[in-house]
Amino acid sequence: MSTVATSQIKLTPERHRASVRSRLQDALPKIVLAPSFAITIVFVYGFILWTIYLSFTNSKTFPSYVITGSRAYQRLWGWTFDTDPPSSWYTSITNMGIFGFLYIFICLALGLFLAILLDQKIRGEGVLRPIYLYPMALSFIVTGVAWKWFLDPGLGLEQTLHQWGWTSFHFDWIKNKDFVIYTVVIAGVWQASGFIMAMFLAGLRGIDGEIMKAAQIDGATTFQLYRRIVIPLLRPIFLSAFIVLAHLAIKSYDLVVALTSGGPGGSAWLPSNFMYEYTFKRNEMAVGSASAVIMLMTIVAIIVPYLYSELREKPR
Amino acid sequence: MLRKLLIGTALASGLAFAAHAEDVKEVQMLHWWTSGGEAAALNVLKGDLAKEGYAWKDVPVAGGGGDAAMTALKAMVAAGNYPTASQMLGYTVLDYAAAGVMGDLTETAKKEGWDKSVPAALQKFSVYEGKWVAAPVNVHSVNWLWINKAVMDKIGGTEPKTFDDFVALLDKAKAAGVIPLALGGQNWQEATMFDSVVLSTGGPEFYKKAFNDLDDASLKSDTMKKSFDNLAKLVTYVDPNFSGRDWNLATAMVIKGDALVQVMGDWAKGEFHAAKKTPGTDFLCYRFPGTDGSVIYNSDMFGMFNVPDDRKAAQVALATATLSKSFQSAFNVVKGSVPARTDVPDTDFDACGKKGIADLKAANDGGTLFGSLAQGYGAPPAVANAYKDVVSKFVHGQIKTSDEAVTELVKAIDDAK
User: Fold this and answer.
1) Which residues does chain A have within 8 Å of residue B100's beta carbon, measured at their own beta carbons?
2) Which of residues 1-40 of B touch A (CB under 8 A)?
3) How are beta strands B295-298 and B283-287 bridged, if at all?
């Protein structure tokens, strides 16, 4: 770019220098943004299109570029109704539903609750806040392994309580095909709820104290205060938190692997595990791509209407 | 100025290319043998090559493990940047050969006499359309029992010869308050055990038909149903905590005497050696009851890629060194497997290794050497994984009866074919 600029200067008289410079200045933000823009276009949107393309081919181990129709989708569709015994795809999407709902709901509820408690001008907030927040600094792998040991009946909680004398205590969810997905929820909530708490706390601090005082003077109880004033005012935080949690939920592949290595008989799979397994381990790239496309469509179906309804109200 | 820049770049890349062209004395190797014993075993090969003047360069793989390595290999091959060789398993070699990226070692193979010394069953994977594309490094076999001798003596057990003997032995262990069977509840371990159960229940002919030829009638047969029933019986001898356990932890249970026996491939021997145990006095290795005379195998191979001419000499040196008798013996003594050629002397091997070598030779001569379906040597990965799914779902109760298991197995294999 600079080469072009200098050669132009040589060709043109001195008085044009200023205009070239101002033009360069105008273009500077675009020039700076261009690489990341190009990278995003290629590596995010380009590869989304590529994945969609692959899902209509018969790609196995290697990508094949001959369109062969929607067989991959037909197979997935067939598996969607294979409930007895559950197909891996059926397990994955039901788990996604259970995990996604509980993870987002509990994180929001717990995060808000903790934030409200911490917002009561208590002593030692500076110590308490990081204690809740730090799990977020751990990677999913660390969280997964730590909880795997803690929940393992032969090593962790159950074993310890047995040693303390409570021998009837029984907690083997992590080894149980019907409950293993809830252990993923537990570990996930433990990790993310502190971060959500911090988001809500920031939101609470941003609320104008005058409004609260006015409401109190009008005789609002504490419950009414939060129910009618604080929580509605926190709506933008709910949106941000929801988006953060939704994408964490959908991409939480590593948590399942580290915590359960797929669960008994693959009963803890999420669609992301399904996608990886089929694309890279079973050499069924077309099916893997199709499942990735369905995951994308699911996110789009949830996020777009929500964004639309939230952002439409903004210009007042 | 722009032109100068372009010329400069061209020159620089030309130089880089020239520098690359001189790089013939180097072997680029993609593998995931990084843990103690395996790395030590591989050092033997590095030393052999260094003697001939070839430097060894590992292709780095983030995260270790076979899956990560295979993903890295896929990316390298897609970019046209082939390593000299890569550690590969069974059908992966054939997939890459079908994609036309593998080299041709037929000349070397002829000179070294590989087609006579390497078992025919292995050549199915190392030879593609008449061309040698891979050098087998070892042969693992799957149908083994690993038994803690102290526990065995305590309960007064003897070598089980039939499946019923085996169940009786497990009952004895249970009565003595020991965990009878150490199993890790991961799908490949369950399926690996089921390989042996099927061979024991149906015999060699049946195993071959069902798990190598994927014959529909055999997969649907009552024998297969019986095999699932037998598997269900074995699972009742497992401790309640088995789900998700790693294979080496299950081996550790046998080593420590918490459990009597593990059904596992001969890589388990590496764990016994690492714990300073000797075969015969501390632990026993028997063939899975009812499978004596047959060997279910899997094998590590070095797939040889179609590298540029100036790197072919290094590749040939690597392949020759890999299949040399001295390396085959030295490597496999450490790794716990047996040599991939049947004419290697067994003098350096322990009792289990000697038995493994003799069994392999007998099975090769008798036509009872079969690829393990669970380990990806019986059928392509899509089928093998569909099989592992069904076995694992059966073990963990998503599939409730053996009738249902057979139906699901046929359906899953058909779907994946």
Assistant:
1) none
2) 1-2, 5
3) unpaired
Query: Which residues in B lie closer than 8 A to residue A281 (C-beta atoms)?
Result: 67, 381, 385
Are residues A266 and B380, on separate chains, in Cβ contact within 8 Å? no
Distances (CA, A) of B3 to A4, B10, B11, B135: 12, 10, 12, 49
> What does the angle CA A42 – CA A45 – CA A50 come to, to the nearest 5 degrees?
85
Nearest chain B residue to A257, by CA: B244
pLDDT of residue B63: 55
Q: Which residues pair with B141 in a beta bridge?
A: B297
Residue A214 CA to residue A228 CA, distance in Å, equals 13
How close, in Å, is residue B175 to chain A by CA atoms? 21
Long-range CB pairs of B326-334, under 8 A, 24+ apart, other chains included? B326/B48, B327/B44, B327/B45, B327/B48, B328/B138, B330/B41, B330/B44, B331/B41, B331/B42, B331/B44, B331/B45, B331/B137, B331/B138, B332/B41, B332/B138, B334/B37, B334/B40, B334/B41, B334/B44
Tell me the residue type at B302. F
Q: Does A60 touch chain B (CB under 8 A)?
A: yes
Q: Tokens 């109880």 correspond to what residue?
A: A221
**What are the start-end ranges of the H helices in A134-208?**
140-151, 157-163, 180-205
Residue B262's DSSP bridge partners are: B146, B182
pTM recorded for the entire structure: 0.83
Cα–Cα distance, B357 to B142 (Å, whole number):
14
Q: Would you state the structure tokens that stand for residue A268, as one six-digit string? A: 């803890």
Residues of A in contact with B187 (CB under 8 A): 262, 265-266
Q: Does residue B315 belong to the interface with chain A, where contact is any CB pair within 8 Å? A: no
C-alpha to C-alpha distance for B244 and A6, rounded to whole angstroms? 65
Strand partners, B338: B139
Asked if B99 has any chain A CB less than 8 Å from its own CB, the reply is: yes
Q: Cβ separation of A88 and B71 shorter than 8 Å?
A: no
Domain residue spans in chain A?
A: 2-55, 81-312
CA distance A101 to chain B (A): 24
CATH of B26-140+298-364, one of 3.90.1030.10, 3.40.50.20, 3.40.190.10, 3.10.620.30: 3.40.190.10
CATH superfamily name and code, B141-297+365-416:
Periplasmic binding protein-like II (3.40.190.10)
Q: What is chain A's mean pLDDT, rounded?
A: 86
Crossing angle of helices B402-416 and B222-235, in 10° steps, is 110
Domain with CATH 3.40.190.10 in chain B: 26-140+298-364, 141-297+365-416
pLDDT digits (tens, 9 = 90+) for A15-55: 566 688 888 888 898 889 999 999 999 999 999 999 999 99
Contacts of B276 (CB under 8 A, 6+ apart): none
Architecture of domain A81-312: Orthogonal Bundle (1.10)
Chain B contact present for A272, CB below 8 A: no
| Mean pLDDT of the B188-198 span | 94
Residues from chain A that touch B415, judged by Cβ atoms under 8 A, are 75
pLDDT tens readout for residues B59-69: 877 655 677 78
Structure ipTM: 0.79
Residues with Cβ < 8 Å from A228, sequence gap 6 or more?
A215, A220
Name, in order, each residue with C-beta under 8 angstroms of B411's C-beta and a sequence gap of 6 or more. none
Q: What are phi and psi of B255, to 5 degrees?
A: -60, -45
Characterize the bridge pairing of strands B127-128 and B338-339.
unpaired
- What is the distance between the alpha carbons of residues B326 and B331, in angstroms, rounded to a whole number? 8
